């Protein structure tokens, strides 16, 4: 499992719940970001194959929607953005319940916070 270190300059909300500071102002994407927060929170509270699968499903669904909007609107940073998504999904796909610990949960939280506030914020107003 190759987890790229995350330099999260924003801090992780506690409890780990989406708030308005994460808004990208596309209702569908904001709702999906809320689901991502909920799925990570659920995995932290119940380490099970079902929780891992839910996190993976919610993540893949969101990334597909977000990437589809990028392609439709000829978003210039699409390829780099997709590569980040693909790397995150690869880690999730490799997860087993025995891998889930504080380190992996903190990495997922940091990745999500940093990705939304740094990378996703760059597409605000550009996806139609």
TrEMBL record:
Residues annotated as binding Fe cation 2: 66, 81, 85, 115, 120
PROSITE patterns the UniProt entry points to: HEMERYTHRINS (PS00550)
GO MF, one example: iron ion binding
Record key words, sorted: Iron, Metal-binding
Ranges in coiled-coil conformation: none
Entries under Gene3D superfamilies matching the protein: Hemerythrin-like (1.20.120.50)
Hemerythrin-like domain location: 25-126
Chain positions recorded as Fe cation 1 binding sites: 33, 62, 66, 120
Domain of life: Eukaryota
Family statement drawn from the similarity comment of this UniProt entry: Belongs to the hemerythrin family.
NCBIfam families membership: hemeryth_dom, Hemerythrin
Name of the protein this chain belongs to: Hemerythrin
Species per Swiss-Prot/TrEMBL record: Chaetopterus variopedatus
Taxonomic placement: Eukaryota, Metazoa, Spiralia, Lophotrochozoa, Annelida
